[in-house]
Specification:
By secondary structure, the protein is α+β, with helices and mostly antiparallel strands. Helices cover about 30% and strands about 10% of the residues. The chain contains 16 helices and 14 strands. It has helices at about 25, 45-55, 70-75, 95-105, 120-130, 145-155, 160-180, 210-225, 235-245, 270-275, 275-280, 290-295, 320-325, 390-395, 415-425, 450, and strands at about 10, 15-20, 30-35, 80, 85, 90, 115, 140, 145, 190, 230, 335-340, 340-345, 380. α3 (about 70-75) packs across α12. The termini are far apart.
Length: about 450
């Protein structure tokens, strides 16, 4: 096959024709991955209130240093038409299970959706209602509230009564949303569309924040697949930890499975060992895209951990019981919903991640106009009932009807019929090292002074 193969094109209502990466694009492109923002700390006095919202576990996540070359290598393997990574051993993806196990976010619950109003007056009224104070226009960026305003409000909360505690936690949640969960390229503000979902404090934990976070990761990967995309944002900590968990031979400072630290303490979930990996494995920071591309090209059966969270790898005693409470929906083949963002959780294409046999999957799911919808310009719309979105929201509501029901089996070799179909259909994309001209594309070039200390 020619090194200058034709790019994939898909119809898109906003962009009309979107050009996705062709093989000739790979060698010349290295996307920017912004350095993660340090997480906001919280006062221990609010811990029980924070637990009730479902955001306690994710509040323990520290900064995970980004490995830009690895992120770029994964983007090359992402297919926006199937919503999966295409590796030599088969299709795979970050799943609801991974979100629950890595971030500890609730995956069961109501879809994260509702109204988006573009007027400053509506934003002002919502903040007055929930916080008792409203930002000035200079404290906002379009429909986003600046992080600095939220941090100042949070720090001023006295925590002397129920109301001040709730204001404090709502600010903390909005900051989490604007950084490691739903962050955009600016990293300076968070869209206020999430704020009405925090109005009833007792109901915050009833939303499926985990599925919404996963939708944003998928959206970031789909956008990064555009040939002219220069940056990738979204929950990259989730993507990196998934890769290190599923592909341990690509992880910094690999450890023995049974001693792998999945938690800082026994009562919350995070990847401590990876939080400061550059101090233990500084060379890893400078690995190039060509290194990870070749490693993925040469991936063999057994190197990808299809079932990554079994007790032989992760001590079940360190995982809080509430994480497993609704695990049945982790395998649901459903849309992932977050306001305008609709992405497809294609579990039927990576059944082995749930201990099932993978056969030839059904036809790719077409999300139609809902895929690629953006919030540019005035969008005064209820996304739960919008004509482009209501069908997908209803599918999420009926998620229990779409879980994989096959009896789990011991992980085994893939079916010959599946691998024959897979390689004949996608084989040209499974060995990128031979299809692109390798360039000396580096990972992160310079270590910040702050990180060196």
């Amino acid at each position: 096959m020619s090194k200058k193969s034709k790019p994939r094109n898909v119809d898109c209502p906003k962009l009309h024709i979107v050009k996705y990466l062709s093989y000739s694009d790979y060698a010349s492109r290295m996307m920017t991955c912004d350095h993660p923002v340090p997480p906001d700390q919280y006062d221990e006095r609010v811990e029980e209130h924070l637990r009730s919202t479902g955001f306690y576990h994710v509040s323990q996540i520290g900064v995970v240093q980004c490995q830009k070359a690895l992120v770029n290598a994964l983007v090359e393997r992402w297919h926006p038409d199937t919503h999966t990574f295409h590796l030599p051993v088969g299709e795979c993806a970050v799943s609801l299970e991974d979100v629950a196990m890595i971030f500890g976010l609730p995956t069961e619950g109501l879809p994260v959706t509702g109204m988006t109003l573009s007027s400053f007056e509506a934003l002002e009224a919502e903040c007055l209602h929930q916080f008792g104070v409203a930002p000035r226009k200079s404290d906002c960026r379009g429909s986003g509230i600046k992080m600095t305003w939220l941090r100042d409000l949070k720090e001023r909360s006295q925590l002397t009564d129920e109301n001040s505690i709730q204001v404090y936690i709502k600010c903390h949640i909005m900051l989490l949303i604007g950084t490691i969960l739903f962050g955009d390229k600016s990293g300076a503000s968070v869209h206020w569309k999430f704020l009405p979902l925090l109005s009833d404090f007792a109901s915050i934990g009833q939303y499926s924040w985990g599925s919404a976070c996963l939708a944003h990761l998928y959206r970031s990967l789909c956008r990064a697949s555009h040939f002219d995309c220069k940056e990738i944002d979204g929950p990259l900590t989730l993507l990196l930890c998934w890769a290190w968990m599923r592909l341990p031979y690509l992880a910094p400072v690999p450890r023995e499975p049974r001693s792998f630290l999945l938690a800082n303490r026994l009562d919350y979930l995070t990847f401590t060992w990876w939080r400061n990996w550059e101090r233990g494995d500084r060379v890893y920071k400078y690995l190039k895209l060509a290194h990870f591309r070749k490693a993925l090209d040469e991936l063999q059966e057994g190197q990808f951990l299809w079932v990554a969270y079994y007790s032989d790898r992760v001590d079940p005693d360190i995982i809080p019981a509430d994480i497993y409470m609704h695990s049945v929906i982790w395998s649901a083949t459903v849309p992932l919903v977050s306001f305008e963002c609709i992405e497809w959780h294609a579990t039927d294409r990576f059944r082995r991640q749930f201990g099932f046999v993978q056969g030839v999957p059904h036809q790719k799911r077409n999300l139609d106009r809902a895929h690629g919808e953006v919030l540019t310009g005035p969008k005064n719309l209820n996304w739960a009932t919008a004509t482009t979105h209501s069908f997908w929201v209803m599918q999420w509501t009926n998620r229990y009807n779409h879980v994989l029901t096959e009896e789990p089996m011991t992980p085994q070799q893939p079916l010959d019929t599946y691998m024959y179909w897979y390689r004949s259909k996608y084989g040209n994309h499974l060995n990128l090292s031979d299809l692109v001209v390798q360039e000396d594309v580096e990972g992160d070039q310079v270590m910040d002074d702050d990180n060196e200390e």
